[in-house]
């Protein structure tokens, strides 16, 4: 897994927004997602409670592609947050959807044994989701959050928190950096000592946003590498 991820990935080069197509030309934000190959993105399963999806927004480097296929984790069900992961295939030609460049690159996948709470490592979350202040919603925001030990998350969320989840965020203050509604499906990315960014988590749930003692919860990607490698195939390197 992640063998074909490329050097030069920056957190924003794999950023994808999943958008719902309206009746006219309008679209609205459904969820975040992350590019893992030319045609595939990884996101959260809970993003899909309706059908007819569309990806993309617009700046000079952004690309908009229609969705061809959505693969939900077979053990995801809407009554719980467990296994909150989905793969989305974009529609392209002859197996190619996006051509990679300095602004469009897939993220690396973690190792199966990836440690996800080491040293409260500072990682990055990103998305176009809600904030508590006025921003330009077209701007991708990033925030830095520390990974928390499993025990902290269990203490806060009890049985709802499973070992297929990671939680992250400062606990002590209110109005802290956190993911929120609209950021779901987007990545929790950490930088490894070799400089590469990997996707450790997928934004999934939490008690509110930025609240004291309520860290954000992320799907632990390292538990789903079989699912990912089953569907996704290497993208063509430009
Ligand atoms: C949501 O509703 C959501 N603070 C996402 C992340 C968090 C809370 C809610 C974590 O999609």
TrEMBL record:
First-listed, main subcellular location of the protein, grouped into a coarse class: secreted
Q: Keywords of this protein's UniProt record, alphabetized?
A: Disulfide bond, Hydrolase, Kringle, Protease, Secreted, Serine protease
Which GO cellular component terms, listed alphabetically, does the Swiss-Prot or TrEMBL entry include? extracellular space
Tell whether Ligase is among the UniProt keywords.
no
Q: Name the Gene Ontology biological process terms.
A: proteolysis
Domain Peptidase S1 span(s) in chain numbering: 1-233
Compartments in which it is found = Secreted
**Which is an annotated GO molecular function term of this record?**
serine-type endopeptidase activity
Task: Respond yes or no to whether keyword Lyase is given for this record.
Answer: no
Q: Which domain of life is it from?
A: Eukaryota
The name this protein goes by in its record: Serine protease 12
Entire protein: shown range: 130 to 367 of 368
């Amino acid at each position: 897994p992640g063998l074909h991820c490329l050097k030069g990935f920056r957190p924003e080069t794999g950023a994808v927004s999943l958008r719902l197509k309206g009746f006219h030309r309008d679209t609205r934000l459904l969820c975040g997602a992350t590019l893992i190959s030319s045609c595939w993105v990884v996101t959260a399963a809970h993003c899909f409670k309706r059908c007819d999806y569309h990806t993309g927004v617009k700046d000079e480097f952004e690309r908009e592609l229609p969705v061809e296929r959505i693969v939900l984790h077979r053990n995801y069900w809407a009554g719980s947050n467990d296994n909150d992961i989905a793969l989305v295939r974009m529609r392209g030609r002859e197996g190619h959807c996006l051509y990679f460049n300095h602004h469009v690159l897939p993220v690396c996948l973690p190792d199966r044994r990836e440690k996800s709470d080491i040293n409260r490592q500072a990682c990055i979350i990103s998305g176009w989701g809600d904030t508590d202040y006025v921003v330009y919603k077209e701007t991708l925001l990033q925030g830095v959050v520390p990974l928390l030990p499993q025990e902290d998350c269990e203490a806060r969320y009890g049985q709802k928190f499973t070992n297929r989840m990671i939680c992250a965020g400062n606990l002590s203050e209110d109005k802290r950096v956190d993911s929120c509604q609209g950021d779901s499906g987007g990545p929790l990315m950490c930088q490894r000592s070799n400089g590469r960014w990997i996707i450790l988590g997928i934004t999934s749930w939490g008690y509110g946003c930025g609240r004291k003692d309520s860290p954000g919860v992320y799907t632990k990607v390292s538990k789903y590498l079989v699912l990912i490698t089953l569907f996704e195939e290497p993208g063509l390197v430009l």
